Amino acid sequence: MKSISRNAQVLHYLLCADPGVGRTKLANYAYLADLEARKYLGRPISAFRYRFDSHGPFDARAFCAATREMEQAGLATESEVGVGDYIEHRLMPTSRGIEYGFTLAEAKVLDYVVQTYLSTNAREICVDIVYQTEPMMKAKRGQLVPMSIVDRVPGKNLGFDLERMLAGEADAKAGRTRPLDAVVSELRARTQ
């Protein structure tokens, strides 16, 4: 199958976790995923460059290109749904699968964002959550959102490395472990 861009992969992954989501909420999911990835991994998952737009942080050109790319690849369909006086553009994933190029940690961040904000509507996620994030509080309307202010410095900030922690968890589940006394001996040798 033809590969799709990283931005389209991010949107498709989020869309599969919340089928029928509107464009505004999907864009906010992507922003929150990049925000969390910057905090925990020191880098974003997508290549979106967010501007403070009328509906929150948004990279209109790249977002529209990624949604169009998903539709052209047969991975999503879009429909218009009337919500009062407003027309909402909702996306649905198709049954066609793709292979994502995410690390385990990136996939966990994407999962966390959808699980955390699934029950919020587009207005709530934008006003009550996204607008309250540090980069958005420092952003100026129409300008790029200063996302790098939350970037994690490897080895600092958190006191743990998410990618190493998840790899260790996977190793333990697969039975690739070391005896506790060997680990303790190694730790003692490092501290002396």
Structure description:
By secondary structure, the chain is mainly α. The chain contains eight helices and four strands, in the order ααββαββααααα. The chain folds into two domains: 6-153, no CATH class; 160-192, no CATH class. The protein has helices spanning 6-17, 23-41, 60-72, 104-117, 122-129, 134-138, 162-173, 180-191; strands at residues 51-53, 56-58, 76-83, 86-93. The longest helix has 19 residues, at 23-41. It is globular and about 70 Å long. The mean pLDDT is 88.
- Bulk shape: globular
User: How many beta-strand runs?
Assistant: 4
Distance between the termini: 54 Å
Strand order of the largest sheet: 1-2
Number of helices: 8
Q: Multimeric state of these chains?
A: single chain
Helix content: 40-55%
Work out the count of structural domains. Answer: 2
- The amount of beta strand, in percent, is 5-15%
Largest sheet: 2 strands, antiparallel
Structural class: mainly alpha
**What are the segments in which pLDDT stays under 50 over at least 5 consecutive residues?**
none
Q: Provide mean pLDDT, rounded.
A: 88
- Would you list the SSEs in sequence order as H and E? HHEEHEEHHHHH
Brief characterization of the structure:
The protein is mostly helical and 192 residues long.
